[in-house]
Write a structure and sequence with these properties.
Elements (H helix, E strand, L loop, with lengths): L14 H21 L4 H14 L4 H16 L8 H9 L4 H14 L2 H9 L2 H9 L3 H10 L2 H7 L5 H12 L6 H21 L1 H15 L2 H14 L1 H10 L11 H9 L5 H7 L3 H9 L3 H13 L5 H20 L16
InterPro entries: Flg_Motor_Flig (IPR000090), Flg_Motor_Flig_C (IPR023087), FliG_a-hlx (IPR011002), FliG_M (IPR032779), FliG_N (IPR028263)
GO molecular function, one term: cytoskeletal motor activity
GO cellular component, one term: plasma membrane
Length: 340
């Protein structure tokens, strides 16, 4: 049984009591964070009010929240700025810490944007820039990474590229409002591109997941997916790179893949491979290395299927890693004819 008298709607609340109700509604984490910004006398008053409050009827809570909302709305519009943030921070942080935080924020407010633009595929970035005025494009190219600008500049056409270079040479410091407008426009465009690329990223993630699935699990999924989304699933399977695809690699890149794994991985993976794939691996090795690998395979005795699958998965991951580093080129899996 509560030892305190409940606060009813007719109860006249003091300022600390109203604040106490707001803090209780915020909860321990957010309320505690906000409490840290108060001075010691204010904390004492609110703590005392919370401790003595007892049960508060829902109507009282609603009345306090309504009053709080009305008072906040009476302020009208508010303006956020670095100076406004500085004033708030100085209320509860030392000056050196305030300066450090604002320096981090001001330094990163555009850094992420220009970094994100620099990471975009040059064709995607060129598509974004084609819609912009040349002066705006010159500003953007002067702020993204040099390697990104060098890739995208030729895609905009020689005539336009010449004009852009001239503008970049003559560029002056932009007013803050103009630069902010460019940044906001780019953020919207980049986010829109990211949204359009979401499906492609999801497909890429699915392909990676499929590549790592146990073969029996994947076979079970395949049967169901081929019934429900046959066209989409067929497209995903075409993008997959699995252990058996290593037979498409020539001797030099395959040797690089084999050197990426250590211990028993290679002989274990080949013990469970189809004969033609195993022969392809062995044929890619010098005679002495081939003989040693065959001896090691014969000496292994019976092996568990799970261990074989894991070893084969490591070889696939090694191939994908080398491909991402530009060390080897994986088979494309398409049927298009190459034009010399």
């Amino acid at each position: 049984m509560n030892q305190f008298s409940p606060l009813r709607k007719q109860t006249r609340l003091s300022g600390p009591e109203k604040s106490a109700i707001l803090f209780l509604c915020l909860g321990e984490v957010r309320g505690g964070q906000l409490m840290q910004q108060l001075d010691v006398p204010e904390i004492r008053k609110i703590t005392r009010a919370i401790s003595a409050m007892g049960e508060v009827q829902a109507e009282v809570v609603e009345e306090v929240m309504r009053e709080f909302g009305e008072k906040m709305s009476s302020y009208g519009g508010i303006t956020g700025s670095v100076e406004a943030a500085r004033g708030l921070l100085k209320g509860f942080l030392p000056e050196d810490r305030v300066a450090e935080i604002l320096e981090e924020i001001e330094g990163s407010s555009t850094g992420d944007l220009w970094g994100d633009l620099s990471q975009l595929d040059e064709k995607v970035l060129a598509d974004v820039l084609r819609k912009e005025h040349n002066q705006t494009v010159a500003v953007i190219l002067s702020r993204i990474r040099a390697d990104a600008a060098a890739k995208v500049l030729p895609l905009l056409g020689q005539e336009r590229a010449v004009d852009l270079v001239e503008r970049m040479v003559a560029i002056e410091e932009l007013p803050a409002d103009a630069l902010r407008s460019i940044e906001e426009s780019l953020r919207r465009e980049v986010l829109a591109k990211a949204g359009r690329n979401a499906e492609a990223e999801a497909e890429k993630q699915l392909v990676n997941v499929f590549n790592k699935l146990d073969s029996k699990v994947f076979e079970g999924l395949s049967r169901e997916l081929e019934k429900k989304i046959p066209d989409k699933f067929r497209m995903l399977k075409q993008k997959m790179f699995v252990f058996s695809d290593l037979i498409e690699l020539k001797a030099a890149p395959l040797s690089k893949v084999m050197r990426e794994v250590t211990g028993k991985t290679l002989p274990l993976a080949l013990r469970g491979a189809e004969r033609d794939l195993r022969d392809h691996f062995l044929a890619s090795l010098p005679a002495r290395s081939r003989d040693m690998l065959e001896d090691e395979m014969r000496a292994m005795g019976p092996v568990r299927s799970r261990d074989v699958k894991q070893a084969q998965s490591e070889l696939v991951e090694a191939a994908l890693r080398l491909a991402s580093q530009g060390e080897i080129e994986l088979p494309s899996g398409d049927d298009e004819d190459m034009i010399e």
